[in-house]
Amino acid sequence: MYQSRHSVFHQNDNYGKSRLSEILGAFSYALDLTEGQPAGHSIRACWIGTQVAMALGLNGDELRDIYYAVLLKDLGCSSNAARVTEMFAGDDRKLKHDFKLLGPMPEDFGAFVASEVGVDAKADVREQAQCNLAENGGAIMTDIIGTRCSRGADIARQLRFSEDVAQAIAHLDEHWDGSGLPLGIAGTDIHLGGRIALLAQVADVFYTARGKDAAIAEVRNRAGSWLDPDLCSIFDKLSEASGFWEELALDDLEEQLWALEPAAQYVTVDEDYLDDISFAFGRVIDAKSPYTAGHSERVGMIADKIAEHLGMDDDRRRVLRRAAILHDVGKLGVSSAILEKPGKLDPGEWQIMQSHAAHTTNILGQIGVMSDMAMIAGSHHERLDGTGYPLGLDERSIAMESRIITVADIYDALTTDRPYRTAMSSERAMAILQSDVGVAVDQRCFEALQTVVAGDLL
Question: Is 138 exposed, middle or buried (0-12, 13-18, 19+ CB in 10 A)?
Answer without folding.
Answer: exposed
